[in-house]
């Protein structure tokens, strides 16, 4: 199997070379180059051919060979091919592998088509044994030869032989004993001793042999590189990143150049722009007299890259030209490794550089203006990932690895530190004393709302991501961890196993990760780069007309945040959240407890007055943009106190008449499965005055805004529909309310699509509805029969760990079943009413992984929480770009 | 628009006569005859032509005319047609309408294509006024003429003029005053006074006029008959029976014959067989000197029909010949009205007779053997309705209209009378004292099971048809009413509004209708006719190969009942019900409370031993027939005491250590929406020993039965699946258990299709499952987002009343959405695995209205509760017949 020969093992018959010299790879198409030679081999080939940069001679054993090796072992003809390739290197360098006088030394590096930094292994200075080391010493100097030999022994022992001992520590201790700064300062005698020690450690390991024969060193190193593809770290990394495990790695063998050669030698790593901030100047490290591994190991004090140009002006200028060439070619910030050997610059590697979120945003926007690159706006937007945004947007804890005392569900993102209080009264008193407070409860109920409004964060032991605590906390942007099941909550302390946290103790909760720690942690405020707005504006340009992004907002404050964050409307205004505030709760309870029609009407009217003011506030903020108001959805028991507490009070004889009335009502409204009980439009049919009151309050607000010269645009949405007549009657009430307040024409009235039946009967519903809004949370619950409150804490993790589900369907849309129901809802809805507007207002509307699926289903707009708006705007643009130009994905990292 | 002329109003251009003489209707096809002339007109036409029976001359105004009248008012040319038709009658009878000497009198009767007995109106003796009455008196006798006049005035006043007064009471009081038995015994003078009184009542009603002109009498009577089609009673009847309201009624005008003419006259009604028992002899009533209305009014003491043959042997023989002819023609038992006028027999009407369930069964089976009829077995089966079966199978209360004190859901059919006890202890003590007891609870829990096992009936105020009470009661065949929401239960009494029922008071509950009454009611045991087995065997013959009927049975006793009732296997054996018996509950709780793996294993082993014995019992009973065992399904909290009671005990300090452990566990396992929580295969993944234990117990039972020479055929079913891997792992446990006990090959393992996702992903699931069983209850719950426990008592009635849903989808399968999911499950399942066996084991499997839809979906077998087996076997045959020969529906009444 010689270089450039067809690979006979390839059953598809595609002609693919098994070994390619980087200076002969010009004929391969870029994609093919990357697939066969890996990122590293491909970039070397590019530099050696197209860019004519000084690259040491090298060849690549292709990924084809790796795949063959991994499935059937060492290919019989690979030895022959390898010998021929080594001969090619010898010809190019004028040295011979194993030549006792002037030996050719090699590096052996892995490199897959997709970057997996640090995940696989490298052998350096290959070709040395006692004989060639002596020859090298003769041709150069002894310290350099021995230092190189030590490096070879160490890397071969670690990578190929998997020696268990801590070899870096053996080297470090030799350095300490010698009283020098670096291992390459060791005297030849000490180096010889160190090499002997290392070789002894290898000899002591059963079955381990360090071959003297350079070709045998090469064979075993290549095999080790291939094996590292299946190493634990690499497999785990691929699983996490979703990289196909079948593609295999290439292996590049390159003639060594020596930064450790002498004082006019050295190695460096440089980024064409600052990878932390994105500022447009090269940034990096240089280490004189060292090999590249010394620069990146972090164990040596490196010089800033600017010093390199100072020390070696000529080479510095040559490097700057190379960097410019590379950035213009890659059209992106690059990460470049170089070595200077006796004054000669060699570029060893180039790849597109990793960067922080802030840098990604700044670089992408700057490259649009850069005349050498002229990135398109679409390319700039495509390069920003949701992770980049997350980095710049969320407040987090400074350290990320503080040991946690327990862990729950990250229910409302953000970091909070405060003193733990386990009762609403205790929490409020503490806040009034000026303390920062974390409210810790088994679960929360409307009676806790007064405390929830003033604390720094909320921790509950029960309930999932749609529990009362989670929903309220997200609404107010208060960090919240819920469903931390190991926490046992009492009135004056809580316990996690043996740990007892007493009232007033400080704890920290991370609402993003779900982590709970004892004591206070340092919080890092996020810094949003000014270029973000530019990127998001471009994203909106791209998505506009295909996928609009609105926000979920229930109050004027939320609406203002949402508008500020770029929402083009409110897609979900939940009227129940208005009812939950401490001053409204008594009015709602009065309505629920009303024993006469008059009392009910009076309570409804008071609620109506209050709601009208709320609506006016929201419509004022959103003037000129659509606001979709969902009429009351949750079951009534959510507005009542916890029945368990009432029952206990009753048993103790502590229940006053109001408490007794509440208990009776709570008993009456208690449901076995409230999620599938009397809520949404069902409640409206039981209490026909309710929706009419809400609609009237809303439309009165519209009239008031119009009178004030505003431009209010409302849409009304009926929740939890299952049948056409059920929807039609509710819509009639809304239209009657419009007539009642003297509106000329009623605003659009639509329906939520939340039940599988609504999705399947979308054709019928479209006969009545002016628009659809898919409630993907409830639809997911019903499609799986998964109650979020119950399954997420209990068995979701186990299901994901065992692979029983691909992913948590509440986090990312279930493509198969829920996705099909969304498809059917859109198709059947538009079949009955062409052009029907369809939105999505579940969690998935803010999830970048779900958004392309929703676009594919034909959805017109998304509505997500204000905090997810930037992510959703970006993801919407990405989804539209993917759809518009298939394969455009290669622009995205 | 004359008789026999084309109806120009018919936009479709179909030539349809608007008026048809019964003796000229021979050219109409039977279906057309019935559609145009109604059932009554068609039968008269048949008798007058084909059968040559003595029928008084008549013509029918067709349903076409009625439809035209109802949409556009009295047709302009109808007067002319009516006059021509009357002329035809005059020609046939030799009398003239309005002739003062010998007047022609008419009856005007409604009659739709579909029988609506008693729902519409009739005017008799039309044509009389003072002048023609005098003429009639002259031609016959005065008493007869006046009696006929009185009848005309009364029927016209009631039917056409809708006089509000109680005219029958006016007549009855005149009879009482005269001291005679019957109104036709009144002397002419008294009759004249009575007529004057009746006419005065008419005159007193504003706007009411009784025309003297006979043709005007006729016109207004025809209009009244047409109007009666839209009368409240008729509309309500059609709504209930699902009859199309657009078809309209025909109106038949017939020359009167007079059973009240003299002593050699009379009227009778006769059934060709006994409509109560089905015995093969004619049965009926005869009333000398009376018109037909007197016979059926129930106000006169009639003679048995045998007396008619005795009184008038010649006419009796003629009638017998007519009855035989009619039964042979209709191929069914007939209901015949006749009148003898002065020795001349006239047949006035014939229709297929209504009958009891027992009679229907006996008659259908006998007609198969009857040489004159030779009914096919398929026809016989098709004629038995689910109502017929219900009549012969269920124990019920004697009277059906006892006023109820409240009403709940009929959760387990049957009637029960007993003393009310509100606590489990109270109920058990009372049973031990020898009392019959009804247990009354808010809801039941496993702690009530000991009482539930010994009481006559169960009444709960909360929970629906799948509540604990309902499920346990149905399992044991104990009558149960649940979800009687108005009932407020305390420890020593219960209250319904102002009514207080104290412990020990007797109440009656009807588990079929949901009715609750105070005091004891008489119970009627059902009598099953021996021919039922024959009919059901024929039904099985018909359905066999298309739709098998199995039963749901959880115990050997249930299995025996099911096998006895004709089940060809068990389609659903719920293993949780075995766990609920009082002696197993401690074992289950030990498993739940186990704090160590050893304790859990020990508890599982004890349960396994107990289950094995249960399984052996069932397999013994079902030897040679398949038994499908569903592994544990319900959430664990169902096996724990009520948390509310425990909390109260805790607050009172009454909780012992075991109680505390139970409370802790109950708290842990409490779920917000248990229906969508940790149950089914999810529970199995949390407690991996559970399914393996159950499968091992089952397979050990199989091995034991085999060793004993039996032929056990088991199938194992995994509940609540949502994904392929989830199912695959559970199936693996079952197969491992089979290997553990040394079975050569594991029995079939299938999955329930209960979640919408399972239905949509049926293709994936079929890759793992050997069969499917659709759990249509849960599938309905999730498709609608309707928790049965919550919606049925709360808003289902309201939804049905307001037409927001066509029907309760838990009673009859929702064709649209749930039906589509069943279709998809079958199609996709068989797409992946051709020939995949699919069963249904929800309530719908026993519902005659749902069964045709399930057959259409392609289902192979049904599995229903043993009590519904006869109905399901019959409905399966009906469904197969409908499918095999479309239009066969006309065989069914």
Description:
The structure is a homodimer of 893-residue chains. The first copy, chain A, is α/β, with parallel strands linked by helices and 893 residues long. Helices cover 45% and strands 16% of the residues of chain A. Chain A has 35 helices and 31 strands. Chain A has an 8-stranded mixed beta sheet. In chain A, strand 19 and strand 20 form a beta hairpin. In chain A, helix 14 packs across helix 19 and helix 24 crosses helix 25. Chain A is elongated and about 110 Å long. The N terminus and C terminus of chain A are likely disordered. At the A-B interface, helix 24, helix 26, helix 28, helix 29 and helix 31 of A face helix 24, helix 26, helix 28, helix 29 and helix 31 of B.
What's this model, at a glance?
2 copies of one chain form a homodimer. Chain A is an alpha/beta fold and 893 residues long.
Strand order of the largest sheet of chain A: 12-22-21-14-15-16-17-13
**Contiguous runs where pLDDT drops below 50 for at least 5 residues of chain A:** 1-16, 886-893
Of all protein chain pairs, which has the greatest interface, and how many residues does each chain bring to it?
A-B, 58 and 58 residues
Output the radius of gyration of chain A: 33 Å
**Helix/sheet category of chain A:** alpha/beta
Tally the helices of chain A: 35
Distance between the termini of chain A: 35 Å
Mean pLDDT of chain A: 90
Strand content of chain A: 15-25%
Number of strands of chain A: 31
What is the overall shape of chain A?
Answer: elongated
Main sheet attributes: strand count, strand direction, barrel closure of chain A: 8 strands, mixed
Assign a percent range to the helix content of chain A. 40-55%
Quaternary: homodimer
